[in-house]
Design a protein that fits this description.
- With about 325 residues, the chain is an alpha+beta fold.
- It folds into three domains: about 140 residues, Sandwich (Immunoglobulin-like); about 70 residues; about 80 residues, Cupredoxins -  blue copper proteins (Immunoglobulin-like, Sandwich), CATH 2.60.40.420.
- The protein contains nine helices and 14 strands.
- Strands 3-2-1-5-8 form a five-stranded mixed sheet.
- The chain is elongated, with a radius of gyration of 27 Å.
- The relative contact order is 0.11.
- The N terminus is likely disordered.
- The structure holds dinuclear copper ion.
- Dinuclear copper ion binds next to loops.
Length: about 325
C-alpha cells in the first residue's frame, strides 16, 4: 500500500512539473480524444466477451465437476444444430463489423481534415536520432522541442532523412509513420498549454529509445513571442569559443544563422539555449552535460552521427561558453 501511495505521489509530482506522464487515457486534442473514445468502445466490447467466456468456463467447471465414482459414459453430444451454429457465426461477424465501421469512421474523420488559412504548418523531419522542425511560414528551424499554439490546428508534415521512424505524442494523436521518400501528415489542436512528451515509436536503430519529442504548447501570445525570438539571427561575439566553433568541424553539420555556419546534417543551434534538453531529449542542457557531450559524444550517445576529432579541454570549455550565448 505504501509503495502504491509512493508511486501515485511520484507520478503526481512528475505530472505537476510537466505532462511527463504519457497516457492515451488523458487526451488533450481532437484526434487523441476520438481515438480514446474508440479504444473505450473496443475495450468494453472485448471486456464483455471476456466476462461471458470466463463466466461460462467457471460455470462449467463448477457445475460439471467430478462428483463421485468415475463413469466412462460420454455426455450428450450437441451437433447439427443450425440455430447454435448460425448464432456463433453471426455474432462474431456483427462484432467485427461494428468495430471495423467505428474504426473506419474515426480514421477518416481524422484523415480528411484539410488545413485552413489559419492552420499552422510544421515540417517534421525524422533523423537518426533526433527530430528537426521547420516552420515554412516563419522560416523558423529548431530541433527536438516543438512549439505550437494552443487552440489552433497545427498540421505536421512528416518526412524522414534516413530510415522509418514514427511520430507519437500520446496525448495529442496516435502514431504516424515517418517514411523515407513519402510525405505523411497528421494534425493536432492542443487544448491545454504545457509540455507534453512523445517519442519515436518505430525501431530505427541503436538510439531509437533516445529519440524523444518535447511538445511545448504555448498560449497564442507566447507562441508569437517565441516565433519572433527564433527568427532572429545569432549575434557574433568574437569569443574564443565562437572562433573554435567556426573553425572546427562543427559548421560541417550545424547551422548558426548570423554566423558562417550552415551545415544541415545536425540540429540548428541558432537558439540552442531556448531549448531545455539536447541529444533529442536525452540530457538537460547544463554546463556539465555539454562538456561531457563535447568531450566524447559517442560515450554519451553511442552511435550518434556526431563523430568528431577529440577536442582539448580548453576548446571544450570555450565552446560550451559560446553555446550558452545562443539564446
Ligand atoms: Cu526514430 Cu525510432
Amino acid at each position: 500500500m505504501r509503495f502504491l501511495a509512493a508511486l501515485v505521489g511520484l507520478s503526481a509530482s512528475v505530472q505537476a512539473q510537466e505532462h511527463a506522464f504519457q497516457s492515451i487515457f488523458r487526451p488533450l486534442a481532437t484526434p487523441a480524444r476520438a481515438e480514446y473514445e474508440l479504444s473505450l468502445l473496443v475495450l468494453s466490447i472485448c471486456a464483455a466477451i471476456f466476462a461471458v467466456v470466463t463466466g461460462l468456463i467457471i460455470y462449467v467447471i463448477v457445475r460439471f465437476r467430478d462428483r463421485g465414482p468415475i463413469t466412462h459414459a460420454e455426455p450428450p453430444q450437441v451437433y447439427g444444430s443450425n440455430q447454435v451454429e448460425i448464432a456463433w457465426t453471426i455474432i462474431p461477424i456483427l462484432i467485427v463489423f461494428v468495430l471495423t465501421l467505428a474504426t473506419a469512421r474515426v480514421t477518416s474523420t481524422i484523415q480528411d481534415r484539410e488545413p485552413t488559412a489559419s492552420s499552422l504548418q510544421v515540417n517534421v523531419i525524422g533523423h537518426q536520432w533526433w527530430w528537426e522542425f521547420r516552420y515554412p511560414d516563419s522560416k523558423v528551424v529548431t530541433a527536438n522541442e516543438l512549439h505550437v499554439p494552443a487552440g489552433r490546428m497545427t498540421f505536421l508534415n512528416l518526412q524522414s532523412a534516413d530510415v522509418v521512424h514514427s511520430f507519437w505524442i500520446p496525448q495529442m494523436s496516435g502514431k504516424t509513420d515517418v517514411i523515407p521518400g513519402r510525405k505523411n501528415r497528421m494534425w493536432i489542436d492542443p487544448r491545454e498549454t504545457g509540455v507534453f512528451l512523445g517519442n519515436c515509436a518505430e525501431y530505427c536503430g541503436a538510439q531509437h529509445a533516445h529519440m524523444l519529442i518535447r511538445l511545448v504548447v504555448d498560449t497564442p501570445e507566447e507562441f508569437d513571442k517565441w516565433t519572433a525570438a527564433q527568427r532572429k539571427n545569432a549575434q557574433m561575439t568574437n569569443s574564443a569559443g565562437e572562433t573554435a566553433f567556426l573553425n572546427g568541424q562543427c559548421v560541417d553539420c550545424h547551422t548558426v544563422r548570423g554566423a558562417p555556419a550552415s551545415g544541415d546534417a545536425g540540429p540548428d543551434l541558432t537558439h540552442f539555449m531556448s531549448r531545455s534538453t539536447f541529444g533529442s531529449g536525452m540530457l538537460p542542457i547544463t554546463i556539465e552535460n555539454l562538456k561531457r557531450w563535447l568531450k566524447d559524444p559517442q560515450a554519451v550517445k553511442s552511435g550518434t552521427k556526431m563523430i568528431i576529432d577529440p577536442l582539448s579541454d580548453k576548446d571544450v570549455d570555450a565552446m560550451v561558453e559560446y553555446l550558452m550565448t545562443l539564446k
